[in-house]
Amino acid sequence: MKIAILGGGHGCYAAAADLSEAGHHVSLWRRDGAALQPLVEAGSITLKDAGGQRDIPIALATADIGKALQDAELIVFPSPAVAQEDVARLMAPHLVDGQVVFLAPGTFGSYVMSRVVRESGSRADVAWAETGTLPYLARKHGEREVNVTIRAVRLPTGVYPARKGDHAVAVIRKAYPSVHGCGDALSGALMNAGPVIHPPLIVMNAAPLQHFERWDIHNEGTQPAVRAVTDRLDGERVAVREALGYGQPHYPLSDHYLNDQWMYGDAHKKLVKSGDWREHIDLHAHRYVREDTELGLAFLASVARFAGVDAPVAHGLLAVVGGFLGQDLRHGRRTLEALGLAELGREALLRRLHDGE
Q1: pTM beyond cutoff 0.90
Q2: Less CB within 10 Å around the terminal CB: N or C of the chain?
Q3: pLDDT tens digits, residue range 35-54?
Q4: DSSP result, 37-65
């Protein structure tokens, strides 16, 4: 299958190498041509995982998004949600009927990107899908080298519009057999683990993150008090899903720490052991703040308001992060209010998600 990977981050290089090794024809687009040049010259990505280290040839590495998207049946976008609207505008002139775009994860980007593409003038009949986490726990170790600590074994995926769900999931499963449908785009967005696991880790480790040059929020930064807050926040997420009528499995985040039933299976110990997450985190710029809190947690809190679910932990964490950012995060651009969806009734919203605009 022809697959386009959009972006130059950890997950993008992991996806390009992994899917190429699986036999797919992969085109990797990165807008920064200079940063892409080492891959262009070598023609391969060095992939490291439990199976060792090897060079994986990549069919095409390009800074031309049109070339990357040409003839692609599946478009994989593992980049942060903060880039979604900009990339959607770049994609719009090149999309064609029948393509499937897979956001991993999405932060309700399936709906947002679809709207941006249509506002840009495209009428391509495209399915937009988003899942609960990146298919890889991965970190780049060099300009064209990526280390994959673990691969996801369960990827619940929602589709916009939901009427295209069966088609979209069937296409994505050719690349990621661990994908399974979980309903519409809102259900998929409410599977997103980032806005649940990262805001408590950021807020409750703020002092050591600013004091130490490098700090592992998943190792010494994950203590019983942090876990307790995370479990409460995840309980609010599950309550929102249930209030909106979404069924199990909800993939409670406690499974990530306690057993092998979560999206990555038994991953937490491997993540800590790798040492790849002992890093510098800028509380004003890191994606755990700008993506998972400013966008993702604000989105979750807005859906809780819409569903009439009390979510004191979500709103409290938003208030604290807004305090050090100097922003009121309740009114962010990824909330249902900002998207013009909060004014819809529940049935009207679900109908919009099924049928599309």
Answers
A1: yes
A2: C
A3: 999 999 999 999 999 999 99
A4: HHHHHH-EEEEEETTEEEEEE-SEEES-H
3-state class (DSSP) for residue 160: strand
Q: Measuring CA to CA, which residue among 51, 81, 87, 83 is closest to residue 66?
A: 87
Phi and psi (nearest 5°) for 71? 65, 10
The answer on pLDDT for 269 being more than 80 is: no
Cα separation, 316 vs 244, whole angstroms: 22
- At residue 144, the 3 state secondary structure works out as coil
Distance of CA 313 to the CA centre of its chain: 22
Whether the CB-CB separation of 205 and 303 falls below 8 Å is answered with no
Query: Would you call 353 helix, strand, or coil by DSSP?
Result: helix
**Cβ neighbours of 54 (radius 10 Å):** 13
Domains of the chain in sequence order: 2-189 (3.40.50.720), 194-247+276-355 (1.10.1040.10)
Write the CB contacts of 63 (distance below 8 Å, at least 6 apart in sequence).
29, 30, 31, 32, 33, 36
80-115 b/e (C-beta count within 10 Å ≥ 16 → b)? bbebbbebbebbbebbeeebbbbbbbbbbbbbbbbb
Q: HSE of 332 in the Cβ direction (CA atoms, 13 Å)?
A: 29
One-letter identity of residue 103: L
What DSSP character marks residue 296?
Answer: I
pLDDT at position 256: 87
